[in-house]
Predict the 3D structure of the following.
Amino acid sequence: MKIQIELDERCQQTEIIIRCAQLNEEVTRMQKQLQEIASMQEEISFFKENTEYFVKLSAVLFFETDGREVHAHTAAEVYRTPRRLYELEKILPACFMRVSKSTILNLRQIYALDRTLSAVCTVSFSNTHKQVFVSRRYYPALRHRLEERRSSV
C-alpha cells in the first residue's frame, strides 16, 4: 500500500481519494474508518439553559433520556438536545450504539465494562465518574461491536 499526501494551496476542503484495482474488504474497511473519523469531527448543537453550544461528537460519551428530554453527556458537562434518541440513531456515526431503551453510547469512549450477577453491564468512561447501564437485551450486540472494532484495528 502506498500513502501519498499532496499539498495544494487552492484546495478549499481536504479530500481523500483511494485508488485501487478492485474493491475488497480492506479498502471498504479503510473507507468506513475514514468516514467515521471525519464524522466524529463534526459539531452538533446542544443547549444549556438559553445558550447554544457546538460540541464535537468525539467529546460525547453518551446520550440518555430523562423523562421527555434527551441529554448529551461529555466528561464534564451535560447538554440538552431537541432530538429524540431514534432521530440521533439515524444521524450519528457507526461508533455510537444504543445500549438500552434510554441510552446511546460512544463506543470509542468506553473505558471499562463491569458485568454484574444480574447480567446487567455497567460501562465506565475515562476521566469521569459517569457510568451507564447496558441492558441484557443489548449486551451481546455491544460485545460483538467491540470485538469488531478490536479486530479491524
Summary: Helices lie at 25-40, 85-91, 139-152. The chain has a mean pLDDT of 87.
